[in-house]
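Q: Focus on the chain.
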Amino acid sequence: MLVLFCAVMTEQKILFHSTSITRLTDTCHALTALMFPFRYSHVYVPLLPSSITEVACSPTPFIIGVHSSARSECSDLMDVIVVDLDGGSITVPDGISIPALPDVLGTQVQELLSMVLHPELTSADFAFPPLVINSPPPQTLDKEIRAVFMRMFAQLFQGYRSCLVIIRIYPKATITFHKVCCVTD
């Protein structure tokens, strides 16, 4: 999940494929929802018809979902991260490097996500674990996952105000160009 999140935040091309149309559209929507408060502003097609799979050759970043039957038509893409939703695998081509979150923050997000997605881990080391562990309803799970990512964004951008100091001190432009100088031989 974090690999895909980092890929979408660094404007990579991502192609999902599955035999389930619902899984394709839900996954594409979930990935863009995790970006909040940002919005995905590139090509976004949760379900691309198999008759126009050449769209996946686009030079711009995208999130595209295709049915697995059309996957073979997109097999020669060299700069596209391919996600097999049925098999649960992510294929990152050799020429693409996806920057990761800073170590401390990445570890913290992984731990929080594992606690949300696997609440039974909180009591795994207890001598007398509870007999029944209630899993939260899907709406609660959705809110908890979004909260993890919102906290991550808050930590990433917590010092943004210090970048605005120069604007407050110098409200007028500090660099101006009055003339254009050309050198000719």
About this structure: The first strand starts at residue 13 and ends at 18.
